[in-house]
Amino acid sequence: MKSGPRDMPEAPAVDFAALYDDLPEYVARREAGSFEQAQVNIEVALFKLPHLLALLPCPEALGDVLEIGCATGELLAALPAAPGARRVGVDISAANVQAAHARFPSLVFICGDFRALQPGAFDTVVMSDVLEHVPDDATFLRDAALLGRTVLVNLPLEDNWLNRRRRYGPNDVSGHLRRYALEDGLALVRRAGLELLGWQRIWIHEGPAEVARRRLRGQRLGSAFSGGPVQRTLRRLAFASFSAIQPLGRKVFASNLFFVARLPARQGSSP
Q1: pLDDT digit string, tens, across residues 187-198
Q2: Which among 124, 126, 188 is positioned nearest to 153, based on CA atoms?
């Protein structure tokens, strides 16, 4: 039996706003010119953005956009915008919102709970790498869908060999509360009561983003792989082997589920 989110312990009560204010991963990406910020830019441009937009008939279909869990704003800023369309980001971390304001002053960023916003106020609600961070993922997803006609989501699928021993919860290095397999991600849409309009599963190590990330590591950190000389050589050879044998690589490395969904028409707030 595959392990999924139902196998993860319930997250204890924590101050998530404070957690993401201070989480080292987010602190580092707020620093202008940092390696972490450059890596996020690569992931947005070469991985997240193209696969999210591929689910839509045309970029103009985005209309007015709300990004929930916008962090430091890179994805929201990269989304194509029709003339006059609104781009609004909301995040519970005041430090992230402050950094987003400073970097993308032409966009609107709000610190707080998205549930305070008016239902149906947007055409598209975007969430990227968010649902794995919240205690009640199904309710969160359904509440998000109330704010727009469609919801566009990127969800990490970490039911892979490299994450089998990872201890999920608020103390996780990235703050992930649970691990998803593909069937868990698709079941989440059903549990939220949404209609699934389209989806695709993508492995980042198979595309151009991974090449660019390795190049960035070499430029900034001196090597595409971490560790001492022997470790770097072994990791480089292992990565090349796993990448060359697709079925094996897809068991070793994590993937992402990209999907577009909506509330059933009779339940939505928009016509």
Answers
A1: 999 999 999 999
A2: 126
